[in-house]
Amino acid sequence: MTSATTAMTVPDTEVLRDALGLLKDREQVAERLLDSSAKHSFDPDAELDWDAPLEAGKWYWPPELVSLYDTPLWRRMSVEQQQDLSRHEAASLASLGIWFEIILMQLLVRHIYDKPVTSAHVRYALTEIADECRHSKMFARLITRTGAPTYPVSRLNHNLARILKTVSTTPGSFACTLLGEEILDWMQRLTFPDERVQTLVRGVTRIHVVEEARHVRYAREELRRQMVTAPRWERELTRVSSGEAARVFSLAFVNPEVYSNVGLDRREAVAQVRASGHRREVMQSGAKRLTDFLDEIGVLRGAGRKLWRSSGLLA
Ligand SMILES: [Fe+2]
Ligand SMILES: [Fe+2]
Predict the structure, then answer these.
(1) Measured in angstroms, how far is the CA atom of residue 1 from the centroid of ligand 2?
(2) Near ion ligand 2, which residues have CB within 5 Å?
(3) Are 100 and 180 in contact (CB under 8 A)?
(4) How far is the CA of 180 from the centre of ligand 1 (A)?
(5) φ/ψ bin of 59: left (φ > 0), alpha (ψ from -120 to 50), beta (otherwise)
(6) Distance (Å, whole) CA 230 – CA 169
(7) What is the Å distance from ligand 1's center to 221 Cα?
(8) pLDDT tens for residues 251-310?
(9) How many whole angstroms from 106 Cα to the centroid of ligand 1?
(10) Ligand 2: distance of its center to the CA of 132 in Å?
(11) What's the whole-number mean pLDDT along residues 14-33?
(12) What ligand has the least distance to the C-alpha of 213?
């Protein structure tokens, strides 16, 4: 009897100690992120020169990161047409960014609904929501300034995301957050230092990279904790739902309307992007930091891994 009780209490105590350790760790991470937010946050309306004229002959996105780069179609295009495509793709990615950020804001609001309002963890979530508000306004202003249209995702994806942002549980929400943030972040890190790119685009991506690094940290730490503490069904659901999100994300990444809008045959362009080895490499390199992390914490297993493979983001 005694030994059975001991055997039962030991793991319980350990679980409790681990849980307390994780919560303490959660507060420490949030405190550090709040400190960094206080030091390095930007007001894009004041920080960037929105009235400066756009520069002739410059790209709106590094050419190597434009979807058609190095395809037979690309080689037939004039530099002007290639640069015009980069303008439309930048607007398409900014539109995708706004879509993601609006979803993310709702996920964060749902995440903190039941949590202690004075905790650093909740205060940081509110700080991140405020960052995303500024980012979405900044991206919208960029789209307007480039003169390109907005590029919404398809009705189907729009409505799939409506379901996801309403019902998804915490680990699934943070896995999707990282999917949205890390690949675009990888591209933006290559964009802001690139002197071939428009100054305004460089300014927008620089602000986003600085503030986004904290969001990635917050989401990673929370997802790591969740993959230890969440019940088995929820971890399993996270594997499948993040794989499905990766599949949808890779299809929705660039709106194919961009090709028609620069005078290309849309179907031919989409087919060439799908067949492009360069593009596959770009997308997999962009996702690598994320997929390595997800693999390490046990998200890329079973059926979920197959979905990740089919998205083309996992080699
Ligand atoms: Fe953002
Ligand atoms: Fe973010």
Answers:
(1) 53
(2) 212, 215
(3) yes
(4) 9
(5) beta
(6) 10
(7) 18
(8) 889 999 999 999 999 999 999 999 999 999 999 999 999 999 999 999 999 888 999 999
(9) 13
(10) 6
(11) 74
(12) 2
| Token duo for residue 28 | 């420490």
Work out the angle between the directed axes of helices 170-191 and 232-252 (0-180°, nearest 10). 40
Predicted local distance difference test score (pLDDT) of residue 18: 58
Q: Which tokens belong to 129?
A: 């929501």
Percent of the chain with pLDDT over 90: 78
Instruction: Read off the tokens for 252.
Output: 């929705």
Distance spanning both ends of the chain, measured CA to CA: 53
What integer is the mean pLDDT of 88-117? 95
> What is the architecture, at CATH level 2, of domain 24-40+61-311?
Orthogonal Bundle (1.10)
CA of 222 to the centre of ligand 1 (A): 18
For residue 1, how far is its CA from the centre of ligand 1 (angstroms)? 56
pLDDT of 8 strictly over 60: no
Domain boundaries, the chain: 24-40+61-311
Q: What is the pTM of this model?
A: 0.90
Range 124-132 average pLDDT: 97
SS (H, E, C) 82-105: HHHHHHHHHHHHHHHHHHHHHHHH
Give ∠ CA 152-157-162 in degrees, rounded to 5: 100
